[in-house]
Amino acid sequence: MEHESLNNWIWDGLYYHPHLFGGLMLTAALLGLSTGYFGGIGVPSLPHLWSDVGIFQKKKRGKKRVRVYMDGCFDLMHYGHANALRQAKALGDELVVGVVSDEEIVANKGPPVLTMEERLALVSGLKWVDEVIPNAPYAITEQFMKSLFNEHKIDYIIHGDDPCLLPDGTDAYALAKKAGRYKQIKRTEGVSSTDIVGRILLLLKDAKRNDSLLNGEHQESISEDARVSQFLPTSRRIVQFSNAKGPDPNARIVYIDGAFDLFHAGHVEILKRARQLGDFLLVGLHTDYIVSEHRGKHHPIMHLHERSLSVLACRYVDEVIIGAPWEVSKDMVCKIFS
């Protein structure tokens, strides 16, 4: 009866005070005492106790999601911006993007071409972006860095390998580097917002030159090389931007085509609406020749593969046709959707 009474007492203790009795059993195990020491009490062996009662099981915790932050002006959004954010996302699980305010851009670089609303729409429309912080500062100040770490739960601050200097010559990311919370990505060569503005200015200058020639005035000719893109397309880059999957067997496929030159907020909106009409959005990109034929010889400003990457980076796009025909024929439809 003593054994039975003690046995009941122990099991009552396990039920009502599991942590206390768990500690006693762990102590016994550490001292090398067998559960047989309790002679006939009927206490189960430690492994059995762990699996059934769960006293010593570690609480399973989900892996902490790494949140990374990257900021920028993102003026005249192009595939270089998209590739930077793609690389940033690869360094974590969630990407938070800060869009620098108009005032900060003016103070540090000069007036932006696009408004804050347009730039926000473009950044939010990228497939790798999870959250957006509007009106971010140009430099990572101590106050803003604390806000990123404490309020937005940011683990690392990301920037490209190109230097980002303030007007006084100091590093805009010096504090993040000092805190040991900075990571770096490679800059995408061959394109920049400055380069795109240059192309636009050359287009306007060339158009003015042609008008002058029609009026019998002499103007210095513009080298065709000045308009040649420095972008070198590779299959690897296209794969990096692609969703790498086709439509499901019963998916409703939506097709839309266009030039999508100088990808902008209006493009994001129309692609969003097109995607809402079905399950899979296929976008056709017209060749440079077709665009030039219909819009004038100075177009497009961005070349076919540049435009393709900009469209592929949009979160609403599933696949693109690089060099789609102008007319959507029955034969084309059969080839696409077969």
TrEMBL record:
EC number(s) from the headed UniProt entry: 2.7.7.14
Protein name as catalogued: ethanolamine-phosphate cytidylyltransferase
Keyword annotations of the record: Lipid biosynthesis, Lipid metabolism, Membrane, Nucleotidyltransferase, Phospholipid biosynthesis, Phospholipid metabolism, Transferase, Transmembrane, Transmembrane helix
Any one Gene Ontology molecular-function term assigned to this protein's record: ethanolamine-phosphate cytidylyltransferase activity
Coiled-coil zones: none
Biological process according to GO: phosphatidylethanolamine biosynthetic process
CDD domains: CCT
Family: Belongs to the cytidylyltransferase family.
Broad class of enzyme this protein falls into: transferase
Pathway where this protein functions: Lipid metabolism; Phospholipid metabolism; phosphatidylethanolamine biosynthesis; phosphatidylethanolamine from ethanolamine: step 2/3
Domain Cytidyltransferase-like: 69-198, 255-331
Keyword Transferase: yes
TM annotation in the entry: 20-39
